[in-house]
Amino acid sequence: TILVLDFGSQYTHLITRRLRELNIYSEMLPCTQKLAELGWKPKGVILSGGPYSVYADDAPHVDPEVFKLEVPILGICYGLQELAWHHGRNVAAGAKREYGHAALQIQRHSGTQAHVDRLFEGLQDDMEVWMSHGDKLSQMPAGFLTVATTPNAPYAGVAHADKEYYGIQFHPEVTHTPLGTQVIKNFAVNICHARQGWTMEAFVDKEIARIRKLVGDDGQVLGAVSGGVDSTVAAKLMHEAIGDRFHAVMVDNGLLRRDEAAQVKATLTKGLNVNLTVVDASAKFLALLKDVADPEQKRKIIGNTFIDIFEAEATKIAKAAENSPRAGPINFFLQGTLYPDVIESISFKGPSATIKTHHNVGGLPEKMQLQLIEPLRELFKDEVRAMGTNLGIPSELVWRHPFPGPGLAIRIIGSVTPEKVRVVQAADQIFIEEIRAAGLYRAISQAFAALMEGKAVGVVGDQRLHGWIIALRAVVTTDFMTADAFEFGGEFLKRVKNRIGNEVEGVARVLYEITSKPPATIEFE
Ligand code: XMP
């Protein structure tokens, strides 16, 4: 195991991710972690970057016991300053901030000093790196040698002459340092001899063990599922850990994709054995949305109604649980939070995770005094997919495009009616079916049909039709913050337009939306 001590850099989690990609197990802990309380001995320690200056009075510092472990240490950015600070303290701070690409020049040593170059083994003498720091070393700490420089940082890489201590000013964990993973591998594998046997299977086993220990022998857990990959993977993991003591609830708001509620139910219960209750509240949602045209108003109504219904169901389940002879009360609430949802990393000031509001189920956990359980919080989306595959979740579900919580209500511009829901569901189904048939589903990040406000004139047979306007949207994006419209070639869009025209009653026009994000958003509302 590699111990990653976090000084609060926005990149620290990427260090653990790179290690996982190398099949190396690591644990990330706050930089102030007391070594005596650790309970295990790491094979090596990585000190992360951080927003502080080592010279500040309130600067965080590692437990000095780290240096008595006699294991290799790699300091990255602030971690390098920290390493230097512990080896002399009188190194001066650099005044100039540096942010962006830099050309790193590696300096090779020979003879008895050759071992200090091990961090850059197998790499060319120059490489592109990413810098992001205020302070830099302006004097060599005692006992160290220079192993790399940049035009702006004469000590961009240092290594101790006798001990296995390395420090680098650049960030090897970001993709802007293209060969950074090799540097991390050199440290973890060649220098620390960490085992590369860590797999997703092992991660799942460890997480299951952690959940069992946390929940105890009779604790019970409640959670909401939406049919999306995150909540499904989290639910399946809970089921593997504690069986029917995990209670999943899905609220069918009548604004899901066509047949989705039934499909999710079948997959989760029959396929994955998850203890699931589906509450059909379509009529209630549609009644409350009648004549509501404002998008934010729709979101509010849907969010609040969801919470009311979920809470009522949760109360029922909790009552039943109280009377269950085999298990104790419900004391946990499952949340499928992923790493990118955890806005701030765990800092030395203590965990400060903030969850995006649409992932939240209101104040329910506090109200019912439930403790949060977040088994996916260290993972990125692609890792959640890998976990889903590992847990036997069908690939259509694992690779499913995201779907917004307010559902089709924000894909129907203006007021929502049952007729409009029917039309947009039918058009969407055809569009997605054709995308799958053309083998384009995974190349597109998100695709859907939306219903425009108002009607347009068309002709069907000899008859004039005053019908619906459908807009199709397909985008490509990695982070959903920016996106480009997907360019369909050949006859694809014509084929979809023909099918929608023929098969969905009442549609007069089919449009394809080409605006990128920004200036548009992905959804229409
Ligand atoms: P926008 O439209 O903001 O969408 O470009 C970015 C991503 O977020 C999804 N989205 C939502 N998801 N509740 C959700 O759960 C919402 O209110 C909501 N609005 C947008 C959208 O589908 C896309 O993936």
Largest sheet: 9 strands, mixed
Provide a count of the helices: 13
Structural class: alpha/beta
In this entry the ligands are: xanthosine-5'-monophosphate
Which overall shape is indicated by the principal axes computed on the Cα atoms?
globular
Strand order of the largest sheet: 2-1-3-4-9-8-7-5-6
What is the number of strand segments? Answer: 19
**What number is the mean pLDDT?**
91
Stretches where pLDDT falls below 50 for ≥5 residues? 343-359
User: How much beta, percentage-wise?
Assistant: 15-25%
N- to C-terminal distance: 47 Å
Radius of gyration: 27 Å
Helix content class = 25-40%
Feature tags:
525 residues; alpha/beta; nine-stranded mixed β-sheet; five-stranded parallel β-sheet; 19 strands; binds xanthosine-5'-monophosphate
Short description:
The chain has 525 residues and is α/β, with parallel strands linked by helices. The chain has 13 helices and 19 strands. The longest helix has 28 residues, at 295-322.
Secondary structure: elements and pairs:
Layout: E1 2-6, H1 12-21, E2 26-30, E3 44-47, E4 73-76, H2 78-85, E5 98-106, E6 126-133, E7 144-150, E8 153-160, E9 165-168, H3 180-191, H4 200-215, E10 220-224, H5 229-242, E11 246-252, H6 260-271, E12 276-280, H7 282-289, H8 295-322, E13 330-334, H9 364-367, E14 371-373, H10 381-390, H11 395-398, H12 418-437, E15 446-451, E16 456-460, E17 463-476, E18 484-485, H13 492-503, E19 507-512
Parallel strand pairs: 1-2, 1-3, 3-4, 4-9, 10-11, 10-13, 11-12, 13-14, 17-19
Antiparallel strand pairs: 5-6, 5-7, 7-8, 8-9, 15-17, 16-17, 17-18
